[in-house]
Amino acid sequence: MNLTTVISTVAATTGTAVVGSIASQDTKSRWYRKLRKPGFQPPAAAFPIVWTALYADIAVTSASAIDALTEQERFDERRNYIAALAANLALNASWSWVFFKAHRLVPATAVAAALAVSSADLTRRTAAANPVAGAALSPYAVWTGFATVLSGRIAQLNK
């Protein structure tokens, strides 16, 4: 992998993680503690572990896909991939702000659903460039799908 590409994708995912984590600090707020949550919600300690692994996964697999598209001279696909990655990371960071800061449960579910669709698309694009990287990114699509179900159930329990 090209070092410049890796640095770029690491910087983008790190920025996303920082922006999202600023909003997510409200997990200790009275509002969040009082929310009814489904029994299938993972323990709080699981979220930073899972997200750290997923952000590393996104950074590495995206760098691999971008480099593969460059090497294959598929420059339109490369440009579209980078745009899809940027959109995905923007959706990713925005969920925490809509959920934790704005306390908007239904809109947060909509953001989560858009993120799940975007993550599936990013996984598809990654697999088209590098099948191994696409397979490695698939847990991200699965996790964001699960997050959508979780967000929806929290919204339903707290009408």
Automatic annotation (TrEMBL):
> Which Pfam family is an annotated match for this chain, by its short name?
TspO_MBR
Q: This protein's superkingdom?
A: Bacteria
Instruction: Classify the protein's membrane topology as the record does.
Output: Multi-pass membrane protein
Show the stretches that span the lipid bilayer: 45-69, 81-100
Classification via CDD domains: TSPO_MBR
Q: Does the keyword Membrane apply?
A: yes
Q: Where in the cell is it found?
A: Membrane
The alphabetized UniProt keywords are: Membrane, Transmembrane, Transmembrane helix
Q: Which family does it belong to?
A: Belongs to the TspO/BZRP family.
Output this protein's name.
TspO/MBR family protein
